[in-house]
Design a protein that fits this description.
- GO terms for molecular function: carboxylic ester hydrolase activity; serine-type peptidase activity.
- By secondary structure, this protein is α/β, with parallel strands linked by helices.
- It has one domain (about 50-330): Rossmann fold (3-Layer(aba) Sandwich).
- The protein contains 8 helices and 9 strands.
- It has helices at about 120-130, 160-175, 190-200, 220-225, 235-245, 250-255, 285-295, 315-330, and strands at about 60-70, 75-80, 85-95, 100-105, 135-140, 180-190, 210-215, 270-275, 300-305.
- The chain has a 9-stranded mixed sheet, with helices on both faces.
- Strand 6 (about 180-190), helix 3 (about 190-200) and strand 7 form a beta-alpha-beta unit.
- Helix 2 (about 160-175) crosses helix 3 (about 190-200).
- The protein starts with about 60 loop residues before the first strand and ends with a helix.
Length: about 325
């Protein structure tokens, strides 16, 4: 879902790689007042465990109109299949025969009624295509020309995670562009950073590296409290979530199971986090907490902090992108 600060930690924090985990978080103990429920072989439908073993239908990537041509790449309108829907997006294809390394981009929150195709990560799309990457920016369901899903908000936007996973599968299966299957990464900003966390927790090994900019919290209740609970414009959604699933005190298991932090022990990909100290939307303490949790789970994670940078990077954006391309070169080699 779409501040106090602690003393700054070092600008870069890193832990070494580890073997894939074979187990995830321990079962949540029953809390007073919460009825004890017999264990079920099926995960709850609105949960990250529901995404662990399901089938994904990502494919049928279709290039449409040429939107732009530069000396470095061609930009296409595209669509692909996800969850039985067509999802729109843009595809930047570098010059040359390939096969090229590739990135799937997950954008931040923009009102779906205002969002247009490819919006939200235009600078990154251009930079990365010029660096030689095929770039697939997914619009997600309910955005731009994508198919509709009336239940997306009520299901905690987990459909955006499904659409991003299916974007990776669509890239792998396409014959229209020569993509190197062994060199695919993810990049997300803000809400899209949370989508990236979900993907690498739900489908470890799907990609080879992950980068997030100014991400939301990896603890989903933080995001709900900040943007949904007390927003008068979202009172109907807040009421639905609290009535259907319960508050943290009433339903701790639900909130753990929709939080990627719970499943960081599953993550096998190296992760790079960028966050500005003056972020007015997503407090930097969230990324510090995420970094600590990833390190505790054995994830190969590095966090760069940018003094004075707001949510949308300005002065240090080129530096953050140089660091991103260096990270991708190292891990998508």
């Amino acid at each position: 879902m779409t501040a106090c600060t602690s003393p700054d930690r070092p600008a870069a924090e890193r832990e070494g790689p580890r073997a894939p985990a074979t187990s995830s978080a321990a079962p949540e103990p029953v809390q007073p007042g919460e009825p004890e429920v017999a264990a079920s072989p099926r995960p709850r439908p609105v949960s990250l465990p529901a995404l662990f073993d399901r089938q994904y239908d990502g494919g049928a990537l279709r290039t449409g109109a040429v939107l732009a041509e530069t000396e470095a790449y061609t930009r296409y309108f595209v669509s692909y299949r996800s969850d039985g829907r067509r999802i729109s997006g843009i595809l930047n294809v570098p010059r040359g025969r390939g096969p090229h390394p590739a990135l799937v981009l997950a954008h931040g929150y923009i009102d779906p009624a205002l969002y247009v195709n490819g919006q939200g990560l235009m600078r990154e799309q251009d930079w990365l295509a010029r660096a030689g990457y095929v770039v697939l920016h997914t619009d997600y369901r309910n955005h731009a020309q994508s198919g509709k899903d009336p239940s997306a908000e009520r299901r905690m936007r987990l459909g955006y995670t499904v659409d991003t996973i299916n974007a990776v599968h669509a890239l792998r299966r396409t014959k229209q562009v020569r993509v190197d299957d062994d060199r695919i990464g993810l990049l997300g900003r803000s809400m899209g950073g949370g989508v990236v966390y979900n993907v690498i927790a739900a489908q470890p090994g799907l990609v080879d590296a992950a980068v997030v900019f100014a991400p939301v919290s990896s603890r989903t209740i933080d995001n709900f409290d900040r943007w949904i609970r007390d927003d008068p414009g979202r009172s109907a959604l807040s009421d639905f979530v609290l009535r259907r699933y319960g508050d943290l005190r009433e339903a701790p298991r639900f909130w753990r199971e929709v939080s990627p932090r719970t499943y960081f022990d599953r993550v096998t990909e190296p992760v790079l986090i960028h966050h500005g100290t003056a972020d007015e939307s997503c407090p930097i303490r969230w990324s510090r907490a995420t970094t600590r949790a990833m390190r505790a789970a054995g994830v190969d994670v590095r966090m760069h902090t940018y003094p004075g940078e707001p949510h949308a990077f300005v002065a240090d954006w080129p530096l953050s992108m140089r660091r991103t391309t260096a990270f991708l070169r190292a891990h998508l080699a």
